[in-house]
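call fold target=MotA/TolQ/ExbB proton channel family protein
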Amino acid sequence: MLAIFQAAGWPIWLLLIASIVATALIIERLLYLRRSKILPKRLLDEVVQVYRNKQITPDVIDKLEKSSPLGIVLSAALRNVDAPRDVMKESIEEAGSGVAHTLERFLTTLGTIATLAPLMGLFGTVVGMIEIFGSQNTAGSNPAALAHGISVALYNTGFGLAIAMPTLVFYRHFRALVDSFIIDMEQQAVKFVDVVHSKRK
């Protein structure tokens, strides 16, 4: 593998760095974007119970805020539990936008790598081809050596595509996952607002 990288030229090392970064980000997002961590199952019921038992204290709100992204949204609602419905919903939306930004962290980088990797591979191939044809002399060339050189140059394109395809799949997966989390959080927050304003039993 090392011999292939050395033969393919310096552009392939850029692709290697991109692959390491993409792998690290994918692992980090897989560990962070877990439904049990983002949307704890019984958290809304617990918050409703705290509200009905009138146990809302600064310590409870702080603990809720640190528990999960959904906790951040619901803690914003608890802080404004005595405010009018519009004010309460506005505070939830503000907290939700901050949570959405956190959930989308690194996704732009993943998308950029997925888009850029094939272009980097093509760039490496072009550089390799220029070097191959530039090294030929006027007396002629060895067809076998030329074919070998071209195959080595194409490693860049192949490696670029090999990076781009799984990265793109994970990028799309994470985007869909984040969108579903945001929708679920909005729905749970609206349920809590309805409970507070006595429109939901």
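return ok
The chain has a mean pLDDT of 87. The two ends are 64 Å apart (CA to CA).
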